[in-house]
Design a protein that fits this description.
The chain has 2 domains: 7-141 and 420-499, Alpha-Beta Barrel (nicotinate phosphoribosyltransferase), CATH 3.20.140; 157-395, TIM Barrel (Alpha-Beta Barrel), CATH 3.20.20. The strands form 5 sheets. A 7-stranded antiparallel sheet has the order 15-14-1-5-3-18-19. A 6-stranded parallel sheet has the order 6-13-12-9-8-7. α2 (52-63) packs antiparallel against α7, α4 packs antiparallel against α5 and α8 crosses α9 (218-225). The two termini are 46 Å apart. The radius of gyration is 27 Å and the shape is elongated. The chain is α/β, with parallel strands linked by helices. 40% of the residues lie in helices and 18% in strands.
């Protein structure tokens, strides 16, 4: 889709279009902050700082390239036409747009906590202000697109981090292989996202804590938006889908389809969706028939159920190991153990033979995964017997309902202005909504004696200088740039600091 040169200027809420004339006469500077105010996700009281660098590259720089490259008269004419079409006869004008075009860049100054920081709620994660008094209106003009561009990547990154800690806890309890955790929460969400961009931004948040993903385009976004020596970012395995299995059984029988797939992939991991027809027949007839071929492979055959109640399918309807009789009572994990055996770890929990595995990727979220881990543990199985495919049910729901900007109560508010040379602390303080009270003044973030971040309001210049809110971008240039590997490493340290 080819957009007009003024497209970036229209990525705002319409009510902001004439705020330039609504501010008091003589307004020179507007200073705002972006804060996660509260959490609607159970057990989450810190948020992963992530997405500002991507927003600056995508919007502040790239999206405005066509605007600055176009002719000044052309952009002014297009802008005036857009204002008339939207608001009818108006006095918004285009002189400020002409002035911005002549400036050649957005005169803004972004300060932020390092990406990968785990910031407590109520502590600002970034501030933004104009650097040229002629463009005081620009600070909050970009609020809409800044919020829309950053909240989802932060929420997805936060969810995935807390899930990782949850999986680590189960590995500790059951002796599961901790090296395997990188792959145990696999991003299946692309098709359920609202766009390819939202899928990529969410996918990057996920990859801060895991390496398993089917969201392959995310790697392109990482390479462009967080460039550097990033090492291995993420990956997946060869896998079938129902159309493959249906076509195979139309041409041959299901047993021969499995046999052909094992020959097609003599090494490595091959994941096979196994409930196109009869999951229990696969587990009790087809796999035993192919046992010698499976055990002779230098790799793993992963069985993927895709329907039914996940806990019952994987763990069986009878919770005690060895007490079930029918396949349904035993479940996938126990049936694989019965046929192929495996190992027992130091904590006396069982792990299925390395040639076999299981993955479940339908309507998975943390509470459901917790139930599955618990039921596996009841039967004496370690947490490393299963991989979960996390789709839009998790990334756009789960952990407290639907995922929205309100998941972390994210909001941008102005707290300081300068009018006719006079600095003024401002704040929002509604009597009808105490939770929406904003901070006031210029802001600083520092660490206390417990190594936790805290907010300083009405900060002095010295406090701002010592603040953890450091300059990221100013007047057209990055001052601080982080690779994806750097963000990952920072989050790893922060996770240890906050979650242990």
């Amino acid at each position: 889709m080819k957009l007009s040169p003024i497209a970036a200027l229209l990525e705002t809420d319409s009510y902001k279009l004439d705020h330039r004339r609504q501010y008091p006469e003589g307004t020179e500077y507007v200073y705002s902050n972006y804060t996660n105010r509260d959490s609607r996700m159970k057990g989450i009281d810190h948020a992963v700082v992530f997405g500002l660098q991507a927003f600056i590259q995508n919007y502040i720089m790239d999206a405005f390239e066509p605007f600055f490259a176009a002719d000044e008269d052309e952009v002014a004419k297009l802008y005036e036409a857009a204002m008339f079409r939207f608001n009818g006869p108006n006095e918004i004008g285009s002189d400020h747009i002409r002035a911005l075009h002549r400036k050649g860049y957005l005169p803004l100054h972004f300060r932020a906590l390092k990406e990968g920081t785990l910031a407590p709620l109520q502590v600002p994660i970034l501030t933004v202000e104009n650097t040229d008094p002629e463009f005081f209106w620009l600070t909050n003009y970009i609020e809409t697109i800044l919020s829309a561009s950053t909240w989802f990547s932060s929420v997805s990154g936060t969810k995935s981090l807390y899930v990782r800690k949850f999986i680590e806890d189960w590995a500790e309890r059951t002796g599961g292989n901790t090296d395997f955790i990188d792959w145990q929460w696999h991003d299946f969400s692309f098709r359920g996202q609202t766009s390819s961009v939202s899928a990529a931004m969410s996918g990057m948040g996920h990859l801060l804590s895991f390496t398993g993903t089917d969201n392959i385009q995310t790697l392109e976004y990482v390479d462009y938006l967080y460039a550097g020596d990033n090492g291995f970012i993420g990956g997946s395995v060869n896998a079938t889908e129902h159309s493959v299995m249906c076509a195979g059984t139309a041409e041959e029988n299901e047993l021969e389809t499995y046999r052909r797939l094992l020959k097609l992939y003599p090494t490595g991991i091959i994941s096979v969706v196994s409930d196109t027809y009869d999951l229990w027949n696969v587990l009790t007839n087809i796999l035993p028939t192919l046992k010698s071929e499976i055990l002779a492979r230098d790799g793993k055959l992963v069985i993927r159920p895709d329907s039914g109640d996940p806990a019952d399918i994987l763990c069986g309807t009878v919770r005690e190991f060895g007490a079930g009789v029918t396949p349904e009572e035993k479940g996938v994990i126990e049936l694989l153990w019965d046929e192929f055996g495996g190992t027992v770890n130091a904590k006396q929990f069982k792990t299925i033979d390395s040639h076999l595995g299981a993955i479940y990727g339908d309507s998975i979220f943390m509470e459901r995964a917790d139930d599955i881990f618990a039921r596996m543990a009841e039967k004496g199985f370690a947490s490393d017997n299963i991989v979960f495919g996390a789709g839009s049910f998790f990334f756009q729901g789960g952990m407290g309902g639907g995922t929205t900007r309100d998941s972390l109560g994210s909001a941008m508010k102005a707290t300081w202005v300068q009018i006719a040379g006079k600095a003024l602390n401002i704040m929002k303080d509604p009597k009808t909504g105490a939770s929406k009270k904003s901070a006031t003044g210029r802001l600083a973030v520092q660490k206390d004696d417990t190594d936790e971040y805290f907010l300083i309001q009405k900060a002095t210049p010295e406090q701002e200088e010592a603040s953890e809110l450091k300059t990221v971008w100013k007047d057209g240039k990055f001052v601080r740039y982080q690779s994806f590997a750097n963000v990952r490493e920072n989050l790893k340290l922060e996770k240890k600091r906050v979650l242990g």
